[in-house]
Design goal:
The complex is a heterodimer of chains A (163) and B (158).
Chain A (H helix, E strand, L loop, with lengths): L1 H15 L10 H22 L9 H26 L2 H15 L5 H21 L3 E4 L2 E4 L1 H17 L6
Antiparallel strand pairs in A: 1-2
Chain B lengths: L1 H22 L5 H24 L3 H26 L1 H10 L3 E2 H7 L2 H14 L3 E4 L2 E4 L1 H17 L7
Antiparallel strand pairs in B: 2-3
Helix pairs in contact in B: 1-2, 1-3, 2-3, 3-4
Classes of the chains: A mainly alpha (163), B mainly alpha (158).
Chain lengths: 163, 158
Amino acid sequence: MWYALYIAAHLVLYFAVLRHLQAFRSERTIFLYHALSAIGVSLVVIGSLFVPGSDVDLVWVIGVIALHGIYSTTFLEIWSLAEGGYSLQIVEHIARANRLGQEPDAEALQAIGIAKQGNRLAGLVSIGLVRQEAGRVALTPLGRIMAWCFTSLAWLTNVQDGV
Amino acid sequence: MAILLAVGYFVVTVILHAIWCRVSARPSVVVKYVAVGGLTGLGLMAHLLSVEGLTYRTVSGLLIFGLASELYIFCFTLIISSVSAILLRRLYRGSVETADLAESYSPRWMVELRLDRLVENGFLVRTDEGYQLTEKGHNLIRTFGKLRAIFKHPHRAP
């Protein structure tokens, strides 16, 4: 019960105060706001397992962590979606063109793709999933594990997008 | 017991979802999971209530199932839409020349892939003059406009 109230307070604090702050408009700050809270709650509930005389058990501990997990994952997904992905930018671009009675500018749409592709490859290199050597791109051992997970998931859900 | 039941029902959901994904292309993978997960979730609730009664153990079991489902949906939507995930899956088949990668996954291809999905999902229609937004597409923009305002994201030029 106390943990449900804590999560409600965490949400209210964001909407009442924090969202108005410039710092909380960055992905990093929002992520830290949730990650630190989730780590803190997890440590406290796991610690309560070892308090002498405590009547909590593993099911309760995992339930509390799952509650925070659902809250944070849902919040971060909605926050990130609201920021607008590639598809939303395409829809907005076409809406603008429709309104002005013009053809959508294919080059402008592709420019978004060029920026995204460059950023993603550089991002994958910087987090150690991909390496670039002598004009070739290859997976690192960590990247291979991650790619295997994605490939397995694509197999499970029968996702075929021409990759 | 509650944890084992939650994990067991989640595994069953993933298997049923995988079968449905192979049987038909429609509806979308997310809708399929919500349908299958909704039914198995109800089954889990009934099972937990019969075993544990209305206790924190039942609630915990449902929360574990809910979190696992949410993470699973997050992961498979990521592999569909994320450029990074698409690049990783391609590289899993072997290394490629940087220039070939840029050519194969050209911005034109990425735009066309998304346009196809937006048409499939009813946000756009193809016409002789190009693409037109549907009512669903207009609603999407309105909804995201409101969400952007709620989260104080920078406003994009209309």
